[in-house]
Amino acid sequence: MKKRFLALLAAGVFFVSISQLQAQVKLPQASSSTTIEQSIGIKKVSLTYQRPNVNDRVIFGGLEPYDKVWRTGANNIPSITFAEEVTIEGHKVPAGTYGIFSIPKKSGDWTVILSKNANQWGAYQYKQEEDFLRFPAKAKKLNDKVETFTMAFENVKPNGADLTFAWENTKVSFHIAVDQSKEIMASIDEAMKGEKKPYFQAAQYYYTNDLDINKALAWANEADKGNTKAPHIKYWKAKIQLKAGDKAGAVKTATEGVTMAKAANNEEYVKLNTQVIDSAKK
To answer: From edge to edge, which strands make up the β-sheet containing 79-82?
Structure first.
């Protein structure tokens, strides 16, 4: 009896040990998950999606049929979160989190769907009444195959970016635009009331965004007062002068920038200030 008890005990311990080992096994996901956080202007957009591989399969027109709603990846549909209102291909989209579906096409534009329900596994429970927005998105064929499904923010600028997704030999893209100019200009005006005035940053912003160039120049002049060691300030002031039509002033300022940059062994701003001089002399 005792031997039988010990044998059963040993078997039980062995079974528990095997079960514990099995519970501790960690295996990689067939489709990896990733999250991207992208700044556009002064706000952020975050995107979470799954990344399946081609694995020698025919994807579009095969695994994923044309003209049917696709989860846009694998497992859970991608979710995208906007911290503020954005404009997508001309349509206003309020701040919030949305799911992304798409409809592959054999030729021409695809259809991209923003769903109000971002928490979905696959397209099996897709409901058109949960659509927030449908819009066409440019699709193009690629010469080189993309093995792993990839979503990315491209052409990122202060006022927008393109969101792309590519797999196999197809790449789809659409534009996300933001309008933060009123908010940024208001913050500049408020900061100018303080003790430390952001003359340089404000001048850069106005120049880059094609705003009042005379205001930008006035701020650049303020930033440059007493400047003897900052060739980057000379560079931006010269660019602003050139944009304002003062070629002679731009050459003078950029030449001062070259002298400062050489004294500091700063090859980058020797080059940049020289470029402004060359542009002004054309």
So the answer is: 32-40, 43-51, 79-82, 96-103, 110-115, 131-157, 160-177, 86-88, 91-93
Among 137, 56, 52, smallest CA distance to 90 is for 137
Please tell me the total count of domains within the chain: 2
Same domain, 67 and 137: yes
pLDDT digits (tens, 9 = 90+) for 193-220: 998 999 999 999 999 988 999 999 999 9
Distant-in-sequence, close-in-space partners of 203: CB < 8 Å, separation ≥ 6: 216, 217, 219, 220, 223, 236, 237, 240
Q: Which residue has the tokens 């880059």?
A: 208
Summarize pLDDT for 97-150 with one digit per residue, the tens.
999 999 999 999 999 999 999 999 989 989 999 999 999 999 999 999 999 999
- In this predicted structure, the answer to whether residue 244 has a pLDDT above a threshold of 90 is yes
CA atoms within 13 A of residue 99's CA, in its CB half-sphere = 27
Distance CA 49, CA 36 (A): 9
Residues 6+ apart with CB under 8 A from 17: none
Give the per-residue pLDDT at 30. Answer: 65
**Cβ(47)–Cβ(78) below 8 Å:** yes
pLDDT at 16: 47
Residues 117, 191, single domain; the answer is no
The reply to whether 159 and 185 lie within a common domain is: no
CB neighbour list of residue 197: distance below 8 Å, 6 or more residues apart: 191, 222
Give me the CATH number covering residue 190.
1.25.40.10
Residue 16 is classified by DSSP as: H
Separation CA 115–CA 126 (nearest Å): 9
Q: Which domain holds residue 252?
A: 181-280
